[in-house]
Amino acid sequence: MNFLEERIVKDGIITEGNVLKVDSFLNHQMDIQLFDQIGAEFKRRFEEKPINKILTIEASGIGIACVAAQHFKVPVVFAKKTQSINLEGEMYVAEVESFTHRCKNQVIVSQKFLSEDDHVLIIDDFLANGCALQGLIQIVQSAGATVEGIGIVIEKGFQAGGSIIRNLGYQLESLAIVDAMDEKTGTFVFREQKEK
Amino acid sequence: MNFLEERIVKDGIITEGNVLKVDSFLNHQMDIQLFDQIGAEFKRRFEEKPINKILTIEASGIGIACVAAQHFKVPVVFAKKTQSINLEGEMYVAEVESFTHRCKNQVIVSQKFLSEDDHVLIIDDFLANGCALQGLIQIVQSAGATVEGIGIVIEKGFQAGGSIIRNLGYQLESLAIVDAMDEKTGTFVFREQKEK
Q: Which residues of A touch B111 (CB under 8 A)?
């Protein structure tokens, strides 16, 4: 097990309906030393890529992206989930359909902050069905920029998002892939990942 | 002028209706090196305080809080603005009225992550009328925790929030206080702050 899998085993909670709760260290209370380890690991996995910008989505992706950005020494842009009155000028807008919630959401980035010169690392905390991620990829493409890679903290391997994104040819690195979890015993099965 | 005031003069844009836009470095695209300077300055200003937790509010406060937290070596908790289905258990809820937008919002933090043992630094990117901040203070008080201080990146000195919070006796440190700005000339008047 790597440092993140160990932390999930220690502090992750499986609740009714196979929901994984990691709100004590990842997406409500945030362990910044862990974020720094996550950032260093993303840097190691995308060492070869000419990344000049990190793109994430509000809200819980922002903290991880900002701490990771210190390892890449690049700025972060975060996509907003609804039209905000404080955004001016032209926007890239991706409409994404949530299969789970049966609703449509807009993912929005100002055109000022993404251009065809950008080589983008997309970072988010969770990958399940991949809706938000598909919206972010769509936005990078609208800008004519390049998706150099995608860094995810926890992927739910038993949902479709990861396969879809890998099938599209992207370098998707998930630091922990949960292939199964058992609510009754509180145990996890992580996908084995080759050490690179 | 300090480093932040210089950056506001360089990259801040004053738009119609006296709106200050700093989305190229603070709250849409985020300059992580600047955030690190901001974090170091908060650490200097709250050096004497026994801070063990940073509290912020989604979305744009999260990045600053996380980078600042590295200087304090403490975890960050971010308050959510609406009830989220992924939060379980008991919540601290503050209802805050937005004077400007004439609507009510809920600010929510799980009770698991704030207790009477906590000494909290509240961090946010902007202070104008202070609604969000009042909600965060209310939540810290509900938990029986102590507000050790409040760190703000940009305060709009021509709006009431700053005076209200200082009148209540809190140590409020705003790294730049904009007392006036002129849309036509694009110029700013910053409040003079004593070097501590």
A: none
The model's confidence at residue A175, banded by pLDDT at 50, 70 and 90, is very high
Cis amide leading into A59 (omega within 30): yes
- Spatial neighbors of A120 by CB under 8 A, at least 6 apart, are A51, A52, A53, A54, A55, A114, A140, A145, A146, A147, A148
Size of interface A-B (CB pairs under 8 A): 119
The partner residue sitting opposite A30, judged by closest CB among B35, B73, B76, is B76
Looking at residues B27-48, what average pLDDT do you find?
98
Of A98, A45, A107, which is closest to residue A79 (Cα–Cα)? A107
Q: Which CATH number is A3-181's, of 3.40.50.2020, 3.10.420.10, 3.90.930.1, 1.20.1640.10?
A: 3.40.50.2020
Q: What whole-number distance in Å separates Cα of residue B175 and Cα of residue B193?
A: 9
Q: Which residues of A touch B76 (CB under 8 A)?
A: 29-30, 32, 63
- Of A28, A65, A80, which is closest to B110 when you measure between CB atoms? A28
Topology at the third CATH level for domain B3-190? Rossmann fold (3.40.50)
